[in-house]
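Progress against Task 2.4 (sequence-to-structure conversion) is shown through the following example record, which the project officer requested during the mid-term review.
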Amino acid sequence: MRRALFVMIALGTASAALAQGTQADYDRALNLRKKYESLIGSVPEAPRWIARTHKAYYRRTVKGGHDFILVDADAKTKAPAFDHAKIASALGSATGKTYTALELPLGCRTRPAPRPGYCSGLSARADNVRGSGSSIGPPTDRPVAGCR
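Structure tokens generated for the chain above:
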């Protein structure tokens, strides 16, 4: 009995040790996204609403990196959120590093968790132009029916 228990523990430990990846395996896995995301063009991330406006921005994957797009729901426009080349140049001057317009060290921040009883994200608006009550608007900090 004791010998069988010893053999099972030894085999379990050995198999766990063999299953552990090497540093090269982890480095290769971390670089997979960068390797393949350039093959797919114009993949947007989730939009983020700008507080108390009808504007949102999102980051999208494009060939060579990422760019940021600003959407104005009132004007029904979509354009670059800022001058990516100017930001890359300014960041390069400030840090001494080299950045390109599509490889800025910027990410999208996520919002903190909402307070209990309040919704984050899109909210239904009853004050839309046509009065149907079915439009979608920017985030709200007011209690919304159905949120828990």
